[in-house]
C-alpha cells in the first residue's frame, strides 16, 4: 500500500496523513469470556489483599515508606 492512498486533502488545500486502522480480530469462542474475566479479576484482588497483609505483618505499615 503506497503512502499516497493515506493522504487526504482538506478544503484549504492542507494535506493530512492518517494512520491506517488495524484489522479487527474476533475471538471465535467468546461465550465464556466474562466468566473467565471475573475469575481472573477476583484472583488478582486476592493476591493484592494478601500482599497488603504480608507487607503489614513484615513492616508494620500499610504501604511501606508512605503510611
Fraction in helix: 40-55%
Indicate the mean pLDDT: 80
Order of helices and strands: EEH
Shape: elongated
Number of β-strand runs: 2
**Structural class estimated from helices and strands:** mainly alpha
Q: Could you tell me the radius of gyration in angstroms?
A: 25 Å
The low-confidence parts are none
Instruction: Kindly estimate the percentage of residues that lie in beta strands according to DSSP.
Output: 5-15%
Helical element count? 1
Largest sheet: 2 strands, antiparallel
User: Span from first to last CA?
Assistant: 56 Å
Strand sequence of the main sheet, in spatial order? Answer: 1-2
Please provide a written account of the structure:
The chain starts with 6 loop residues before the first strand and ends in an 8-residue tail after the last helix. It is built from one helix and two strands; from the N terminus they run E-E-H. The protein has 67 residues and is mainly α. It has a domain at 31-61. It has a two-stranded antiparallel ribbon. The protein is elongated, with a radius of gyration of 25 Å.
Give the gist of this structure:
This protein is mainly alpha-helical and 67 residues long.
Question: What is the topological layout?
Answer:
Blueprint: E1 7-9, E2 15-17, H1 33-59
Antiparallel strand pairs: 1-2
Tag the structure with descriptive keywords:
single chain, 67 residues, mainly alpha, two-stranded antiparallel sheet, 2 strands
